[in-house]
Structure formats: C-alpha cells, structure tokens
Design brief:
alpha/beta; Rossmann fold; single chain; about 140 residues
C-alpha cells in the first residue's frame, strides 16, 4: 500500500482537524502528518473557521460535539462561505439520526470513536484524491 507521501506528485493534501479532546487531537495530527498529509489541528470551531477561510483545506475532520458548536454547524458554516471540500464527522455518539443530519449537511463519511487508524487514513486518502467516498464506504 502506498502512503500518502509516496502517492502524490504535488504538495500533500491539507487536512483540518477540529477536536476538543487534546489527546485525540494530538493523536490525529501526528497520525496524519506521519502519513504525509499537511495537517493542522484546532480545539474549537471559531479558530478553525478563521484558518479555513485563509487556507481552504482539502479535507475536514471534525468532532460532532465541540464546545459552543457542533461539527455539523461548523460544516454548514464552511459551506455557506463557499468551501466545497470533503468532510468527515467523527463521534462517540453515533445514531441513525446523527447520520441523517450529517449526510444532509454534506459529510462524506461518519466515523465512530474509537477511530480505527487505517480506516481514517484510507478515507482521507480516498477523499483527497477523488473528492468522494468509494461505493460501500
């Protein structure tokens, strides 16, 4: 299997991570950077939204439950500002209702915590190369 670093001839895709748990945030950041992605991580939606307005990330990974905001509201805000990249919602509180709301908001994937590293890396790689999940994802 090619790593992200080996699979791109252009600069690596940028990934914006928004996760309020410091340990999870750092783990995701190190995992993605270690696989060759240009990843940045924020603990809250407001600074992440400000960053996204300037950098337009190739992919968003956002936790559902954030202080003062949720991941769905954050994606809705990004979409209202014209960002059209792929987004992954992560949550320890998955439900059918959350899945419906997330898909309606434009999330390509919903991944439940605890995250499986290989599933996350495969999803981000696929989404940043193609812009859409493969069938069955």
């Amino acid at each position: 299997m090619l790593t992200a670093r080996e699979g791109w001839s252009q600069p690596p895709p940028s990934v914006l991570i928004v996760e309020d748990d410091p340990a999870v945030r750092r783990s995701l950041l190190l995992l993605l950077q270690g696989r060759g992605f240009a990843a940045k991580a924020w603990s809250a939606a407001d600074p992440a939204l400000a960053d996204a307005a300037h950098t337009a990330p190739d992919c968003l990974i956002v936790d559902y439950r954030l202080d003062g905001c949720d991941g769905i509201a954050m994606l809705v805000s990004l979409r209202a500002d014209g960002w059209r990249g792929p987004a992954i919602l992560i949550s320890a509180y998955g439900s059918a209702e959350l899945g419906i709301r997330a898909r309606e908001a434009g999330f390509a994937l919903i991944l439940e915590k605890p995250l499986r590293e290989h599933a996350l890396i495969d999803a981000v790689t696929r989404l940043t190369r193609n812009g859409a999940p493969s069938p069955g994802s």
